[in-house]
Amino acid sequence: MVHDNRAFSEVLDRLREAGLRPTRQRMALCKLLFEKGDCHVSAENLHAEAKSAGIKVSLATVYNTLHQFTDVGLLRQVVVDNSRSYFDTNVTDHHHFFVEADGHLVDIPAEAIDIGKLPKTPPGTNVDRVDVIVRVSPSRRK
Amino acid sequence: MVHDNRAFSEVLDRLREAGLRPTRQRMALCKLLFEKGDCHVSAENLHAEAKSAGIKVSLATVYNTLHQFTDVGLLRQVVVDNSRSYFDTNVTDHHHFFVEADGHLVDIPAEAIDIGKLPKTPPGTNVDRVDVIVRVSPSRRK
DNA sequence: AGAAAATATTAGAATTGTTCTAATATTTCA
DNA sequence: TGAAATATTAGAACAATTCTAATATTTTCT
Fold first, then answer.
1. B5-78, what's its fold?
2. B133 at the A interface (CB within 8 A)?
């Protein structure tokens, strides 16, 4: 089997830099995740995508991989719905619209929301991150 | 058994207004939830509190009640952690600090955070609510 | 390259938080 | 009070996720 060497080595480097062995499964998931621009996936979701792309990978590995990628900063976890976890390939500072009706996320660039001020944090704590979730729903037809 | 008639009738009214029958369990949970100021509870958590307060109520009823109270606007659900649901007795407009280390929430008054502007919502949608979650963690000791 | 050590993957079992079911109990109201 | 409406319950079912421990792959060492 032949593959695109440019894409291949980019993905390979990405994993190597992160200190993760470039295994067949990780490479494949990496390509699925990063070769088509920003996206938000759930584990089941990515597992299904992998399957339909002909990649043989277990659900356990998908979970492992998503967590490892998150740990090394390749992904960011977004909490919007407590029945499912979403992972975002956009790890830069930004926020989200969440369309509750269909459980789908849309990025909001950091500069589109401007948080004027923050109150002081509870004693003995520091801010890790500020998440803004704008929950929207389909507008009723006029 | 005797009870405080003032508190009793307040709770009773609250349920009546919401169109919920004032059953023994709902009254008891209502008192636990609202008689001690703003608080954030999970179902398991409230169930345990009820048990230790000597209230006999099943976990299923705790879940039912939390959802019913949420539906009628007595509670608000807060999504910060996808392993557990939190319900907030403060239903006014406000935000949260979330201390990830111990999974605990602290209210931030609405006016303490000022969201300068919001980008336009995805086509065909309206904003339901804007949730700001400031994730904090214990600061490392100097 | 070949062998040993280190790390990954996997299927399926286990766990967790939550929801469902359907039988029983309580509450309402005429 | 008694029929109809609504609640509660124990336990089963469920869905997402994590764990287990056996097997496979990858890396390292010589």
1. Arc Repressor Mutant, subunit A (1.10.10)
2. yes
Q: Which two tokens stand for residue B121?
A: 């919502």
Q: B42 and B59 in contact (C-beta within 8 Å)?
A: no
What is the spatial order of strands in the sheet that A76-78 belongs to?
A40-41, A86-88, A76-78
Question: Among B14-18, B87-91, B92-96, B117-121, whose mean pLDDT is lowest?
Answer: B14-18
The residue among B28, B30, B21, B37 whose CA lies nearest residue B74 is B30
Task: Give me the helices (H) in chain A, please.
Answer: 5-18, 24-34, 43-52, 59-71
Say whether residue B112 is in contact with chain A using an 8 A CB cutoff.
Answer: yes
Nearest chain B residue to A139 by CA distance is B125
User: What residues of A are in contact with residue B102 (Cβ under 8 Å)?
Assistant: none
Q: pLDDT tens-digit profile of A2-23? A: 445 555 677 778 888 888 999 9
Chain A / chain B CB contacts < 8 angstroms? 125
Pairing of strands A94-99, A125-138: parallel
Q: Which residue has the tokens 């967590």?
A: A67
| Cα B129 to Cα B94: distance, rounded to the nearest angstrom | 10
What values do phi and psi take at A131, rounded to 5?
-105, 125
Q: Which of B84, B128, B132 sits opposite A130 (nearest CB)?
A: B132
Kindly report the average pLDDT of chain A as a whole number: 90
Say if A44 is an interface residue toward chain B (CB within 8 Å).
no
What's the average model confidence in pLDDT over A99-118? 91
Burial of residue A115 (CB within 10 Å: 0-12, 13-18, 19+) is middle
- Would you state the pLDDT for residue B52? 95
Which H or E element spans position A64?
A: helix A59-71
CA distance B96 to A127: 12
Q: How far is B104 from chain A (nearest CA, A)?
A: 11
